UniProtKB/TrEMBL annotation, chain A:
Gene3D superfamilies: Acyl-CoA dehydrogenase/oxidase, N-terminal domain, Butyryl-CoA Dehydrogenase, subunit A, domain 2, Butyryl-CoA Dehydrogenase, subunit A, domain 3. Residues 236-375 form the Acyl-CoA dehydrogenase/oxidase C-terminal domain. This is Acyl-CoA dehydrogenase. It comes from Goodfellowiella coeruleoviolacea. GO terms for molecular function: acyl-CoA dehydrogenase activity; flavin adenine dinucleotide binding. Its cofactor is FAD. Keywords: FAD, Flavoprotein, Oxidoreductase. The keyword Thylakoid does not apply.
UniProtKB/TrEMBL annotation, chain B:
It comes from Goodfellowiella coeruleoviolacea. Its cofactor is FAD. Keywords: FAD, Flavoprotein, Oxidoreductase. Residues 120-212 form the Acyl-CoA oxidase/dehydrogenase middle domain. This is Acyl-CoA dehydrogenase.
Amino acid sequence: MSTAPSTAHDHTHTAGPDLLYSEVEDELRASVRALLADHCAWPTVLARVETDEPYDVGLWRRLAAEVGVAGLAVPEAEGGAGASWREVAVVAEELGRAVAPVPFLGSAVLSTVALLAVGDSALVGDLASGTRTAALAVPLSTAPDAAFPGGVRVEPGEVLTGAVTSVADVLPADVLLVPALGEAGPALYAVDRAAEGVTLTGVSSLDLTRRLADVTLRAAPGRLLASGTAARDALRGALHTGAALLASEQLGLAEQALATTVDYLRTRHQFGRPVGSFQALKHRLADLWVGITQARAVARYAVGTVADGDPDAGVAVAVAQSFVSELAVLATEEMVQLHGGVGFTWEHPAHLYLKRAKADAIALGSADHHRASLAGLIDLPGVPAVR
Amino acid sequence: MSTEAHQAPPPSADELRQRVRDLLATHDPATTERVEFLRARFDAGLAWVHFPVGLGGLGLPRVSQEVVDAELAAAGAPDNNPRRIGIGLGMAAPTILRYGTSEQQARFLRPLWTGEEVWCQLFSEPGAGSDLAALGTRAVRDGDDWVVTGQKVWTSMAHEARWAILVARTDPDVPKHQGITYFVLDMTAPGVQVRPLRQLTGEAEFNEVFLDGVRVPDSQRLGAVGEGWRVAQTTLMNERVSIGGMAEPREAGIIGLAARTWREHPELRTPGLHERLLRLWVDAEAARLTKEWLRQRLAAGQPGPEGSAAKFAFARLNQQISGFELDLLGEQALRYPDWTMRRPTQVDMLGGSPGFRYLRAKGNSIEGGTSEILRNIIAERVLGLPTEPRIDKDVPWKDLPK
Ligand SMILES: Cc1cc2nc3c(=O)[nH]c(=O)nc-3n(C[C@H](O)[C@H](O)[C@H](O)COP(=O)(O)OP(=O)(O)OC[C@H]3O[C@@H](n4cnc5c(N)ncnc54)[C@H](O)[C@@H]3O)c2cc1C
């Protein structure tokens, strides 16, 4: 055997993407977590939900300025950090863990993907720095493979008219990215929030920490970003990457729900012993931990394939949304149940997690929808409808 | 761990490949007898590269095995049929490596790896399954030997085995975890009787093993007297974490069989089965990716407790998918190929019939620690939840209710 100084690690065969967290990602996580611990503890989040400012824009600016979370996947030439969606996914996990009321999904993910696709460097740079935020004007429930929305029309003079319901992260947004149908088919426009003819109506949302609004446009002036296939692809790409990143947020929710519940059951005593020593509960939590272990692998794979432009990304994202959505809902439902009466109160954070998890499960395509898409991708066709 | 491994820097992938080529050059698989080839491979340190030099390895990270396996497979070299010798490879070997003397390691590991000697695991007893520490098989010191008497049960492949790993009680007067000692037992020794124990599949891959005054030389003890429980933990941990070196392709497990039946038989499809199949496919993919995640962790030198999650999930999944297969097949599933009592030499889930798979999968959540016990372990050791109050920990074994 030769004694040449080399390592045995130079043949890292892996099936597809690296699923582990890198050291850089661990450091990023620590920075985000520290900042959130100081400025986004759950009592702060809870206190905000019934105010006129459900979004914490100051926190978002800070996260963008101090940790750079808004532009991680944006190339350096366009004002970002030149990292990848993998790093963004770590931020998504942490923001999920904290149910942080910031426009991360709408601005740093959905809008940023769409703007990178159409090549609007100026606006991308603003979003990456956190000085402005944008929202993608589609219902939050829109799945990546949904038909191009037809609720907004382009009228003569490049003005837009129509309505979009249930748009996430639009309340604090400076710019709306609006899919619209024109003479020539699909198009994507940027519309200034402050422009004439733009009305936002806040919705009383199931998810208290990611608020929705209905958008009405009456001859609102728009700036054309892309049309035809380019517009369609930009929208689909945004929703697809969004669905991948959402799985990481859901993972963060589930992990926090489990950790909080375990902590509680270790100290809560009934019948003269910690409730967490009862096997009926231990087994439920063990099941949840197994599910979370799997969800982590699934979410990492999804975001890894998206980051690498891997052709398996379609399957990976559909699998992630099918699996992690239901797991996150289960984790938060268990969180409520296993906290007993306390978990049912407004003053306990469990409901913030439950509401976010349930809304996330519907967001960007339900688990059921993604399973149906998967059937086509993996050649497991269903039964033709019988009439 | 071996000291040799740290003296020279580890070889690169290219050097490892060269080493494989050297082996192939001196032992052409086309003309070399299988066992000869396997022995030569062991002696070249290419059997399990993470084992120490001299014991079939090169003291390398586990992940380096991939290079070797790929190169050998490409050359059409024979393997050691790991499914036939899983207990030896997965449980006996790591325990011997950790606790064996150098004489024991030199004697046992080579024929274990080549498959010349099959191993079985004499742990469970009629009165001690999940509660293994309650075992009652006695080993009494007599000169340089121990005399072992008792009954073991559900012993897989005992009918094929040359050697057994055995736990026996050497001191009944102390609490149960303390009075156990770990041995290697010669299955051909006088007083060992193996009787087939038929399973619900019709065949008998496991056995009852009766030990009647079997003499075991003290040189076949693994670890100190009374330390058997600790030694057994190594065996059991390895039983649960037998993650292979290679990434597993999609649809490799029994989900692939179910998917194929679905694709080939449109007439069997119903909406309800479609929904179930898609869910199972997603779950199988999640399990596959979890294994891949674990594999990457092991390769990076960070083993974690997630191995027990993988074993647990695998059992549930196999049971659900094999149940689905029968529902999909309908009338055909009402027939079972053959209930004839057989003595298999290995378990073949993928090669068997759907009915066999359904029945055999029921064992997956019992063998190697039941799913209930795995949940206890996860809850207590991973999540740190408190143990249930126990009445059996400090009482001498002989005074426990049986
Ligand atoms: C196919 C197969 C192959 C096997 N091969 C081997 C072998 O090669 N060598 C060997 O030594 N053994 C072998 N076994 C035995 C196996 O390890 C035991 O069957 C297993 O550990 C369970 O023990 P038991 O059968 O005594 O069940 P018990 O321990 O009596 O359990 C009965 C039920 O109670 C549950 N239970 C028990 N304790 C608890 C608890 N504390 N909390 C909650 N639930 C509990 C169990 O999960 C189970 O459902 C094999 C078993 C099978 C099925």
